[in-house]
């Protein structure tokens, strides 16, 4: 799985994927299906066993063949991350009991908890946090667990880590973008509603001067724009980015006519 901010249909200079630094090395580099498609000889390892939750294979590899669960694979990722990605609670518990570090970071600075956030793996996240995982660890791009949850629209996961484990719902990443920026950019209206309920600052400007409403407008996300406008004030519509453009003007520039029309007609 490539980084969520890399999965963009439009190649445009205003994209976080272009200017945000979160390109090829910035996120989640594999899916279990990717392992499954690999050479058969590569399947007989603790990483694949963890990804698929194959406890029989995992126990055999660790207890009889002496394989380590605390070393990264060839791509730099840990068995615990693979278990976390797929919500394999039993595998994660076994890995922790046999030396897996809940706070181990890969070459991008991400932990197993970051990988939990991709698919909203609440059960494994709860296990990791109870075992001492740090909820506010940031990767090399400044993404905390809350950023990743917002990037993937994992609203229930986001609610869980914020309300139970005090994760920060409004922290900026290295480019000044909060989880609300990401939810708006990706068009996840339920995430936006939750973050606003959690008092995320809708007027926060990133390093480009863009608010969450700017990013929703850039991507033509009408529902996201509607939620943000309904929760905001008239002044939000008039905020300009570093180039002097309002959300409505950016929507018009990107040929999102319906969004631009909506924004200019807000009473």
How would you describe what is shown here?
The chain has 267 residues and is mainly α. The chain folds into two domains: 43-134, Serine Threonine Protein Phosphatase 5, Tetratricopeptide repeat, CATH 1.25.40.20; 171-266, Serine Threonine Protein Phosphatase 5, Tetratricopeptide repeat (Alpha Horseshoe), CATH 1.25.40.20. Helices cover 48% and strands 0% of the residues. The chain has helices at residues 16-19, 32-36, 46-52, 55-64, 79-85, 89-97, 112-119, 122-130, 145-151, 155-163, 179-186, 189-197, 212-218, 222-231, 234-238, 247-253, 257-264. The termini are far apart. Belongs to the DHHC palmitoyltransferase family. It catalyses: L-cysteinyl-[protein] + hexadecanoyl-CoA = S-hexadecanoyl-L-cysteinyl-[protein] + CoA. It comes from Vitis vinifera (Grape). ANK repeats lie at residues 75-107, 108-140, 175-207, 208-240. Residues 1-30 are annotated as: Disordered.
Give the end-to-end Cα distance, rounded to a whole number of Å. 42 Å
For the record, the CATH architecture of the largest domain stands as Alpha Horseshoe
CATH topology description of the largest domain: Serine Threonine Protein Phosphatase 5, Tetratricopeptide repeat
* Computed structural class: mainly alpha
The count of β-strands is 0
Q: Tell me, what's the shape?
A: elongated
CATH 4th-level superfamily of the largest domain: Ankyrin repeat-containing domain
Question: What's the CATH C level of the largest domain?
Answer: Mainly Alpha
Give the helices and strands as they follow along the chain. HHHHHHHHHHHHHHHHH
How many strands, what sense, and barrel or not for the largest sheet? none
Low-pLDDT segments, ≥5 res: 1-42
Q: What is Rg?
A: 20 Å
Overall mean pLDDT stands at 86
Beta-strand portion reads under 5%
């Amino acid at each position: 799985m490539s980084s969520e901010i890399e999965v963009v249909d439009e190649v445009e200079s205003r994209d976080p994927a272009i200017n945000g630094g979160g390109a090829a090395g910035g996120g989640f580099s594999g899916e279990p299906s990717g392992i499954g498609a690999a050479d058969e000889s590569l399947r007989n390892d603790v990483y694949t066993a963890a990804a698929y939750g194959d406890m029989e294979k995992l126990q055999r590899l660790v207890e009889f063949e002496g394989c380590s669960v605390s070393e990264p694979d060839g791509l730099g990722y840990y068995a615990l991350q693979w278990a976390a990605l797929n919500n394999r609670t039993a595998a994660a518990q076994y890995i922790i009991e046999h030396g897996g570090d809940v706070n181990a970071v890969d070459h991008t600075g991400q932990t197993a908890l970051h990988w939990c956030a991709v698919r909203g793996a609440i059960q494994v996240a709860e296990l990791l946090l109870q075992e001492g995982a740090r909820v506010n660890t940031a990767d090399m791009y400044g993404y905390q667990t809350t950023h990743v949850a917002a990037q993937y629209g994992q609203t229930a996961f986001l609610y869980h880590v914020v309300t139970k484990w005090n994760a920060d719902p409004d922290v900026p990443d290295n480019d000044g973008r909060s989880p609300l920026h990401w939810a708006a950019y990706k068009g996840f209206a339920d995430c936006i509603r939750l973050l606003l309920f959690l008092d995320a600052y809708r007027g926060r400007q990133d390093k480009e001067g863009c608010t969450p409403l700017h990013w929703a407008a850039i991507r033509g996300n009408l529902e996201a724009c509607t939620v943000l406008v309904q929760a905001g004030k008239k002044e939000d519509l008039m905020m300009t980015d570093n180039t002097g453009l309002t959300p409505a003007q950016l929507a018009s520039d990107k040929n999102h006519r319906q969004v631009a029309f909506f924004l200019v007609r807000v009473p």
